[in-house]
């Protein structure tokens, strides 16, 4: 019997969720209105310039089986909405919880849509606008090695952040443009259970981060 690796199973899980949300016929010809859908154009651009991402809902991309998720703002809105049912299903699968598990109401400000700890993981989010506006890019696990924002179409975009869990997140910039090995200039630290509506003069300079 063929045995799939953990990574392969994660990719399959995301693919199943995506197929459920969009239907298997989406690979065919798009409706005429789709060409004018700026949201889809933004998503397509990120998918085209990164590796391993899968669109799981109208406004979300998942990587690594849902361990990293980017949420886009819907047309006419300035903030990304809370995680969709498709995203929450992946979050539950990662935590080994029933697929029907959903986020609990949060005591955080309504503007901060970073996921709660319902799924047994520490979620931390980066936003490309101040005051938690714009796209939201979220993770839920420790990363002792640098995570390159460029791998997720988010390099030099962070303008606010929210750390909902127990990890300490450290954000860095490169000292040499285009050289991931030079991502060593510490910019700020995000202590557990804190958030910042602005990074001030360090706006749009984040290249990578660690979380431990």
From TrEMBL:
Q: Which residues form the signal peptide?
A: 1-29
Keywords for this entry? Signal
Query: What name does the UniProt record give this protein?
Result: Peptidase inhibitor family I36 protein
- State the organism of origin: Streptomyces finlayi
Query: Where is the organism placed in the taxonomic lineage, from the top?
Result: Bacteria, Bacillati, Actinomycetota, Actinomycetes, Kitasatosporales
């Amino acid at each position: 019997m063929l045995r799939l690796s953990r990574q392969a199973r994660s990719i399959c899980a995301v693919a199943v969720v995506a197929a459920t949300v969009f239907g298997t016929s989406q690979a065919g010809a798009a409706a005429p209105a789709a060409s004018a859908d700026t949201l889809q154009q933004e998503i397509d651009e990120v998918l085209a310039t990164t590796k391993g991402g899968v669109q799981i809902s109208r406004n979300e991309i998942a990587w690594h089986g849902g361990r990293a998720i980017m949420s886009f703002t819907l047309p006419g809105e300035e903030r990304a909405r809370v995680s969709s049912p498709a995203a929450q299903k992946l979050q539950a699968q990662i935590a080994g919880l029933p697929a029907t598990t959903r986020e609990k109401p949060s005591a955080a400000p309504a503007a901060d849509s970073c996921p709660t700890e319902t799924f047994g993981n520490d979620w931390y989010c980066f936003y490309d606008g101040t005051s938690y506006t714009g796209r939201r890019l979220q993770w839920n696990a420790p990363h002792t090695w640098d995570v390159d924002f460029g791998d997720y179409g988010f390099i030099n975009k962070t303008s606010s952040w929210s750390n909902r869990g127990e990890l300490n997140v450290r954000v860095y910039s490169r000292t040499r443009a285009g050289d991931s090995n030079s991502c060593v200039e510490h910019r700020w630290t995000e202590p557990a259970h804190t958030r910042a509506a602005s990074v001030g003069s360090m706006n749009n300079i984040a290249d990578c981060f660690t979380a431990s």
